[in-house]
Specification:
The chain is α+β, with helices and mostly antiparallel strands and 244 residues long. The protein has helices at 2-16, 22-65, 69-85, 87-107, 115-132, 157-167, 209-220; strands at 113-114, 137-145, 151-152, 176-185, 188-196, 225-232, 235-243.
């Protein structure tokens, strides 16, 4: 289209020379060219941004779907063995497990949830594990939250809590501990968790759990989070800070 207009201009110039109005016509033509190119670039950029957002949203949904299936599978296996041995305990486990599954399915699909709801979910997870193991576990969960009930992406902390039990408590016969601290103040949430582990079963950094967590943090809280893990002797510690 623009080429055709250019040809017309050349013909017009050869025919009429520099007659009055030709300069204005040239100016109008270049303005039209600029507007056309600008509009095309805007549409291309808008399309790229839309595709990028859709891709990120799809990836985030996939990452969320990976959280907790291993835990639920193990719990169902434990329930199978408890049904005949201790039916009352099995019933309690079923109720808590049902509540956790509801949360994972319905609340976990949301963009954000209340921090208080996430805390309740973690507490239910801890109670389930206390009922599951036939050994003494030192589990401490301290919270320090101001009056605001912040909103946060769901199912973030559960990955770190699950790792503490899976790679720590599960492989220790005695003196196992999991200590958790969650502080929420001034639009910042700080989560710390540490556990002891058996060095002969050290595989904290294996699996998709931590990779899943890191990627979700990059997608939802870019440049607004700090995450680190450390191991000193037989103590594993993870820190996660998020600015809301």
């Amino acid at each position: 289209m623009l080429v055709v207009i250019g040809v017309i201009i050349v013909v017009f110039n050869d025919t009429f020379g520099k007659q009055e109005g030709f300069v204005e016509f040239i100016a109008f033509y270049f303005i039209l060219v600029f507007i056309t190119i600008a509009h095309w670039l805007f549409k291309q950029i808008k399309s790229i941004i839309r595709l990028k957002n859709e891709k990120a949203k799809t990836e985030l949904m996939h990452l969320k779907s990976q959280v907790n299936p291993h835990f639920f599978f193990n719990m169902l296996n434990n329930l199978y063995g408890l049904v005949e041995k201790d039916s009352k305990k099995a019933q309690e486990l079923i109720l808590k497990l049902s509540d956790m599954m509801r949360y994972s399915i319905y609340e976990g699909d949301k963009d954000t949830v209340l921090l208080s709801e996430e805390i309740t979910y973690l507490q239910n997870y801890i109670e389930l594990h206390k009922m599951r193991y036939h050994k003494v576990i030192d589990v401490q969960f301290h919270t320090d939250i101001n009056d605001n009930d912040y909103e946060i992406m769901p199912l973030l902390f559960i990955i770190l809590l699950e790792n503490a039990f899976k790679h720590g408590v599960e492989n220790l016969r005695e003196h196992a501990f999991v200590h958790i601290k969650l502080v929420a103040r001034n639009n910042e949430v700080k989560f710390e968790i540490e556990n002891n582990f058996d060095v002969s079963h050290d595989n904290h950094n294996s699996g998709i759990g931590l990779k899943n967590l890191k990627r979700r943090l990059e997608l939802v809280y870019p440049k607004k989070h700090y995450f680190e893990v450390s191991k000193v002797d037989t103590i594993y510690k993870a820190k996660l800070n998020i600015t809301l």
